[in-house]
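Saturday, quiet lab. Running sequence design on the structure tokens for the scaffold JK sent over.
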């Protein structure tokens, strides 16, 4: 089913169980080559979500601020974005160009992501595509400026969300996950993939 919330195009159950498992299998070597790390905010606080990236550019955050860069914090190049992930981008966006970043967020027990905008990309006219895998997550959507009313929706494993147009600059975050609600990841938790054109 398809749901439109404030311009967020939410495809519930877009990926069946087999497709979800293929993505997890494709991510295993990526996580081995570019291990998850805890980014720290510019203010020096460690984020509860662990992250890594695939593609020419990856998103990092440390004492020097937020940015996209060509290498993992430990120095290795980011691995390529697996083909089954690129296929989903092309299927749902219809675009000719590939994303240059697949940001991989891992939510363990208690991890969350506060309301924020994604504004480190060069051109906000490209959409962002999000793929949810594993445990359920409570996704909150706000407005293009801070404050005002928000709306929440549960994202489940296999859901795909496309943010384009004005939704691209909306505040959003993950309030909490239901740890252990899915069997997809043997150790539990949630993986969110976001496909972006960063440069
Ligand atoms: C709306 N991730 O990585 S995905 C993020 O579930 C992020 O891990 C959340 O917010 C997660 O920045 C939410 C949905 C999402 C991702 C990117 C967006 C919504 C977005 C970029 C612009 C607008
Ligand atoms: Fe975001």
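Result came back. Writing it out in full:
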């Amino acid at each position: 089913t398809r749901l439109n919330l404030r311009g967020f195009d939410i495809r519930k159950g877009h990926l069946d169980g087999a497709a979800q498992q293929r993505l997890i299998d494709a991510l295993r070597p990526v996580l081995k080559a570019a291990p998850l790390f805890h980014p720290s905010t510019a203010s020096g606080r460690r984020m509860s979500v662990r992250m890594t990236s695939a593609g020419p550019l990856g998103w990092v955050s440390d004492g020097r601020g937020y940015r996209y860069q060509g290498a993992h914090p430990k120095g290795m190049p980011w691995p390529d974005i697996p083909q089954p992930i690129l296929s989903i981008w092309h299927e749902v966006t219809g675009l000719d160009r590939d994303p240059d970043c697949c940001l991989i967020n891992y939510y363990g027990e208690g991890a969350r992501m506060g309301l924020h905008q994604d504004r480190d990309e060069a051109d906000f006219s490209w959409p962002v595509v999000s793929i949810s895998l594993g445990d359920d997550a409570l996704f909150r959507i706000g407005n293009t400026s801070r404050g005002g009313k928000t709306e929440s929706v549960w994202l489940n494993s296999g859901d795909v969300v496309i943010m384009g147009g004005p939704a691209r600059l909306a505040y959003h975050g993950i309030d909490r996950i239901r740890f252990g609600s899915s069997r997809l990841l043997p150790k539990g938790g949630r993986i969110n993939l976001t496909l972006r054109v960063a440069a």
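Notes for JK: DSSP finds two helices and 13 strands in the chain. The pocket of fe (iii) ion (ligand 2) is lined by residues 116, 118, 172 (CB under 6 Å). Ask whether to fix the surface positions before the next round.
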